[in-house]
Design a protein that fits this description.
Elements: E1 2-3, H1 21-26, E2 34-35, H2 37-40, E3 50-53, E4 56-59, H3 66-83, E5 88-90, E6 101-103, E7 111-113, H4 117-124, E8 129-131
Parallel strand pairs: 1-2, 5-8
Antiparallel strand pairs: 3-4, 6-7
Length: 147
């Protein structure tokens, strides 16, 4: 499973993508399942930018979109249960997919230690998570999740 924006799909809040060359190389060897938790949660594309503020997710218009982010995380988790990926590749710094850092909720461009809503749910379920910042993968990944 891979954050869809990293594969060049226009799923980001601004209607753009963030294609990543190392992620695209993975597609030459592996079956990649794209997903966007924010779209899965019912948010449109494009949409106002959102950041985590405490336990809530607020967009730049001041609207609380926490429920949509949690719904997207739940559906992403259901996809993972079906697909059974050996690894999930997430977009760093995203309020959904950020793994180590997210924006601080002030829309001032400041990063803080923390995880996105979907990243937390997937990690709690025991999935192996990385971001594009962890690529290239240094060791040969397992092709068969049952090995």
């Amino acid at each position: 499973m891979v954050s869809a924006c990293l594969l060049g799909l226009p799923t980001r809040y601004d209607g753009k993508s963030k294609p990543h060359s190392e992620v695209l190389k993975l597609a030459e060897e592996f079956v990649l399942v794209p997903f966007c938790p924010e779209q899965l949660g019912g948010l449109p594309t494009p949409r106002p930018q959102s950041e985590i503020s405490g336990e809530r997710v607020i967009n730049e218009l001041g609207q609380d979109v926490t429920d949509e982010f949690h719904r997207g995380a739940e559906i992403s988790l259901k996809i993972a249960e079906i697909v059974k990926p050996w690894m999930i590749l997430l977009k760093s710094k995203s309020p959904s997919c950020g793994l180590r850092k997210v924006y601080d909720g002030t829309f001032a461009g400041r990063l803080v230690n923390g995880m996105g809503i979907t990243a937390r749910a997937l990690k709690s379920a025991g999935y192996h998570l990385i971001t594009e910042e962890d690529l290239p993968i240094s060791s040969e990944p397992r092709r068969d999740p049952l090995q």
